[in-house]
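Notebook p. 47: complex prediction with 2-phosphoglycolic acid.
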Amino acid sequence: MVKYVIGNWKLNPATLTEAAALAHAIGAMANDANCHIGCTPSFVHLAAVREILKHSSVWVGVQDIGAFGATGAFTGDVSAVQAVDLGAKFAIIGHSERRAYHKEDNSLLVKKITQAISAGLAVVLCVGETKSEYEQGETLGVLDNQLSVLNGLTVLQDKFVQDKLLIAYEPVWAIGTGLTPTIDEVVAVHRHIKANLQHLGVDDVCVLYGGSVNDKNAAEFAGCDAVNGALVGGASLKVQSFATIVEAFAQF
Ligand code: PGA
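Predicted complex, structure tokens below:
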């Protein structure tokens, strides 16, 4: 199965010059057919980053999209159609920071997923439990609830659409903290997610792990069959670390 290592740049970097430098560095990374590299600049840097990477195989995506329409009276939104027009290939949807700071819930996320799919974007749907949910043993139930946004999506019966759906398991308590679940816990969760999606008719969905992935721990995650790649925040802004993570996943 092809692996994906995707950089979630979040609200970084501060300047277009720095974003361009990062894009050049990623474009120069080894291009291994077994491991797709992706990056997600902020919307204001999207066009420039895409231009720099247009002859590379790096997948350029966005960190979010508007829920309500391709164009129209939706002040502040950026639509999937606009992102596609600038060369975006995928959208991260439902990241825990969007859920927390922007109060995104399942009903909104269904709309975003629908917008993304109809515009032809692949979707990286993020799911993950909080620290207290983890401690209470509620992880799988929380994930099932978050994954239920896919339940009513009839387009998921289309194999072409299925191939454009990725899930990122990101425990909220592991994001930016240096903490991670054990490998056994990650594998068990990924298997659960794959089984859940199988019930919806999606075979062997690609499941990425995210949350404090770095150049030191990437190989351990990469060595697990159930981990089909990584969604990388902080370490994706450090060229050497990101390159090491990509190499780790390209090896398997
Ligand atoms: P992190 O972030 O790698 O900095 O923990 C991951 C993410 O939020 O996608």
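Notes: The chain has a mean pLDDT of 96. The two ends are 9 Å apart (CA to CA).
Next step: compare against the earlier run before touching the bench.
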